[in-house]
Amino acid sequence: MRIAVVNCNTSEAMTAEIGEGARAAAAPGTEILALQPSWGPVSAEGFYDSFITAAAVLDLLTTVRDVDAVVMAGFGEHGREGARELLDVPVVDITEAAAMQALLLGHRYGIVTTLPRVRGQIHDSLVTAGLAARCAAIEATDLPVLAVGQDTDRTIEAFVEAGTRALAAGADVLCLGCAGFTAVRQEVSRALDVPVVDAVTAGVSMAEALVGTGLTTSKVGPYALPLVKTRRGWPVHSSTGARN
Amino acid sequence: MRIAVVNCNTSEAMTAEIGEGARAAAAPGTEILALQPSWGPVSAEGFYDSFITAAAVLDLLTTVRDVDAVVMAGFGEHGREGARELLDVPVVDITEAAAMQALLLGHRYGIVTTLPRVRGQIHDSLVTAGLAARCAAIEATDLPVLAVGQDTDRTIEAFVEAGTRALAAGADVLCLGCAGFTAVRQEVSRALDVPVVDAVTAGVSMAEALVGTGLTTSKVGPYALPLVKTRRGWPVHSSTGARN
Amino acid sequence: MRIAVVNCNTSEAMTAEIGEGARAAAAPGTEILALQPSWGPVSAEGFYDSFITAAAVLDLLTTVRDVDAVVMAGFGEHGREGARELLDVPVVDITEAAAMQALLLGHRYGIVTTLPRVRGQIHDSLVTAGLAARCAAIEATDLPVLAVGQDTDRTIEAFVEAGTRALAAGADVLCLGCAGFTAVRQEVSRALDVPVVDAVTAGVSMAEALVGTGLTTSKVGPYALPLVKTRRGWPVHSSTGARN
Amino acid sequence: MRIAVVNCNTSEAMTAEIGEGARAAAAPGTEILALQPSWGPVSAEGFYDSFITAAAVLDLLTTVRDVDAVVMAGFGEHGREGARELLDVPVVDITEAAAMQALLLGHRYGIVTTLPRVRGQIHDSLVTAGLAARCAAIEATDLPVLAVGQDTDRTIEAFVEAGTRALAAGADVLCLGCAGFTAVRQEVSRALDVPVVDAVTAGVSMAEALVGTGLTTSKVGPYALPLVKTRRGWPVHSSTGARN
Amino acid sequence: MRIAVVNCNTSEAMTAEIGEGARAAAAPGTEILALQPSWGPVSAEGFYDSFITAAAVLDLLTTVRDVDAVVMAGFGEHGREGARELLDVPVVDITEAAAMQALLLGHRYGIVTTLPRVRGQIHDSLVTAGLAARCAAIEATDLPVLAVGQDTDRTIEAFVEAGTRALAAGADVLCLGCAGFTAVRQEVSRALDVPVVDAVTAGVSMAEALVGTGLTTSKVGPYALPLVKTRRGWPVHSSTGARN
Amino acid sequence: MRIAVVNCNTSEAMTAEIGEGARAAAAPGTEILALQPSWGPVSAEGFYDSFITAAAVLDLLTTVRDVDAVVMAGFGEHGREGARELLDVPVVDITEAAAMQALLLGHRYGIVTTLPRVRGQIHDSLVTAGLAARCAAIEATDLPVLAVGQDTDRTIEAFVEAGTRALAAGADVLCLGCAGFTAVRQEVSRALDVPVVDAVTAGVSMAEALVGTGLTTSKVGPYALPLVKTRRGWPVHSSTGARN
User: How distant is the Cα of F87 from the closest Cα of chain A, in angstroms?
Assistant: First the structure.
């Protein structure tokens, strides 16, 4: 099985970390392609970045061949429905995957994430996915995306504090609301004595599960293949004005 | 990996069929224990049966040892939260698993099930699970649980008709709302040209995914271990009035 | 008029207290049968217990004859829909009855209950009943079910504290979220100057109201009589494998 | 016990019919005062009429003394929250009472009412009351309020047709969405084989139940007594500019 | 363009202030008629007052001719749907207008209002309008309606405090939940560094926008013209028992 | 006042038509800039196109200076939250504007749009905007975006048919769910006797209303200015890798 795990930003370090996390999560026999778009922000922190990355990731996906599933590894980022339209292999957004696994392990879940400003788009992403009903809280650590992992002790401390607030709000299971947090997951879980879902891990395991069933994306409704038409300057990576 | 797949009723034939479906769905190296309670109805079709099977399944689960996950293989049946409280390994209800996989494959999902009377409890199960927001329709075939599979042609025809109504109501992906339908899944999918999620398959693959992550059920909130206390005549299977 | 008031656990003391509360609530001419199941936990505190009591209560209800209504006197416990299917006389769950009377007396209601762990199942019960929209808070006292009433002063104090939190969250009327609290209702109401609904009282009065209208449970939808079928080892109390 | 049952319009015939229905519903020993406002429309069919009747009924209620409860007998009409603020005895809106009893007797309820135009305000009333979650349908007969009861056969036929549509939409219990329909209730119930809740009957029985509990309206939140202030030309019935 | 801006209470001073605010908000060429009902409370603070003002405003509106739109300038007050039924020109409730403009300027909005008791009716008004989904908080200053503006410093301080609580609850834009606050809007906005929507200003600008489109109120559904019928003692201002 | 009205696709003809509609809607003294992105699809019909246009429109908006507001003239398209983050002038999405004006003119609104496949994204857009609660139906004409206006008679007929279905589902006011339909609005309104909101007109008039109030977008929450960071290959139109 071959799964493309797509970082939404253009930070090679984060793509590498996501790839490493994905490989650690994957079953034996699953090959992980860790990809990143050729353009866009080095980190996505807000709606503006999120919509840029959505297009940059779709641009990238027009070139992806011979994979059995795509994992979109940007937490709370846009674009998953576009990828489902473009592709017929299963597309798993790590936001959805993390929420789903959390729903199976606890009664209400909390999200602990980076900057306060991204809480709104995570909330919108869960509402749109139809998964918000049992979300108890979305709490921020006030760490920028790229700071996560630089000072592991401070990162863990910040996540434990945010997690404590989420538990007080009624959560009994947490999701790490960012790609690339795999390293701190266990520390936070141990400190708070609750299961902590790493989103990339959740995404890979859910994608493997879907591939195993042989099911592919519905093509009779909103996710039918894109109409053939002129898309000026698109795909951007080649700028040949190709139709796709 | 060892997964207990628990039929909720006492029909050996259905337990066998569920076990067969589960084994077909399982990854190499996953051992499937197909179990059924020692008491309760031969089929569950309604709230009364559902609550009997919930207790009978919990009774059974007090005896289950050395499994890595439990799949509760009764579609729309009660009891999953009790199993989560009793056990710390992941517990996956096939109702949830099917809805989750459907959410990843389509924009809105429909359920096609057996008798009209069970639509209410399926609806309640999805609402309680926090997964109802993108459910477009729950449609019944008017086939009793045990009739499914007896006359394959008639079963397929009935499911295609119910599925057609669900698609007209806005679904673009379907779930088979019953355990033991594995055989007819492909026919219905082919006839309607949409992905059709088999619930047992979804349950097994989601359980494998969870086991792979190493996560276990939260024990700090509503799913904390049952208090130690006297439970008269319980477990029922041994009637020793044991405490558990 | 003859009303069966069914304690869900096997504590005789609590059944007696529930019966006493029910008789105090009943109109002249209403006969109260205070019943308890023959098996199951001595107190229900969590999902596991709740599903056991649901079956034990249904088991009991297969033997109940000649009553005009059934009041299910377990707050937040499962099984009411099964009882509605089994019987045609009105079935009133005290959870619903308390919430309904609270809705008529205040703008938003709060629940004050026993252990924190049961808040999840009370929430689910209200959501399933379609009565959660105006619930402002579910607050716990951290008193186990059987401790309630043992130390009246401490019980009252704990409920006043929990009630204060519920009012701060926007409630202007409270429900005691447990059977057998009748004694402390007035003290809490006096301390907080708000109406406090005792759930058993609410259940009995609502059952009387329904019996007075002559209406009985719908038998055309999900609450149609259970299908005739083999239910192995059921009813449990007699274990004759009878059909019902 | 003394209950004021308040018709919202100024049709003496309807007030008489409502009073008759209320007396038939009341327990022995309950005295029914059938009242109507001194001004306002002869029938309420729409938002404009509804807001006029809300004020006219509140105007009337400033003069009501020595009652144990008030039943507001206009289905889907406004004003109940104002009455709760003005009074401390329980105030039961028949819209709420009917929906509540229906929720106890079926899994989802339908409303059958008079003109199509009033469906919107009935819907709003149920949403505001927090009781809409299990409402399957609100269906109109196209009969004006005052035509109901004039031609009993046609009325029954029209309600059976509307009820059939509500059942097809998923209801398994119906409410008559108008005061003064008591006479046709049994015919509709017999024709469709479902329980049919008469709203006035529901209102009286729920008011009796509340009075029996001794509870009164919350005075600490939105239903605190009206502030003392100048209300020009109010109450209208006396036009003395009194303060109340 | 001629817009009637209707204060719901009978305080001339407040009507004058509302008129002044409306004129400041209006485009050149828009004529503002600042109106108030001939009867009813001098200020509306609660459900009882609100329903009185609803009828008094509708009474007034039966006499209003030759306007292009009506702005109902009572925040959280009842009656807008009745005005829409009576009139065909656009009717804009300042509660709706403020919420709508806030939705366009921020991700979630908060309301800061006068007395705690009115929070319930503001909440109900937003729910009924279908605008509550992104309301983060409704916070009260504990200032009575007529105190607002008397001591500007204290008023500003109180609103800044309430606004701070709303921002902490997740709002990033505020609405002043009362007519007649125009003067303090800028001070609060400056202190908290967020946009603060003045409801009267929002109402006037939205009414102008609607008039500019040429659209008028729907007359095919719940807002069809009132039926012609006897309305005893109505309109109240003339008490001629006229039909309208 | 100067308003940029941004077509989301790269069809010059549609940009011209949108500009014409916007100018017809604008007040005297409002200057309309009709813009389109320099890259992307010639029409947006689905999630894939929608996410491409979101980035292309944001790319364009990095170059827009000296406007008082931005109207995003793609119905149901993505990107509005990104534009709100990038800019501080008000940003009005025509989807929101149309729904808001419809809410003020009717009790429940319907959307009539182009291809069935776009219904999902329109639904998601309304849910995310917090405006879905009173949406009765989203109906498609099965006309591609660019076909609209080519054969006016057929277009009108198709919209009348879709509108008829929306009214049957409970709507009493309609929105044209596409930019560039201005020409057919009156015909559809006349045929169905309901107000029909043209989305571009609504967007322009709402933007003018907001500009008139002097309010600007909140910068303290999710719409705070984008962080300064490297965005590789962005903006795309100049590909200088600039920071913005």
Answer: 10
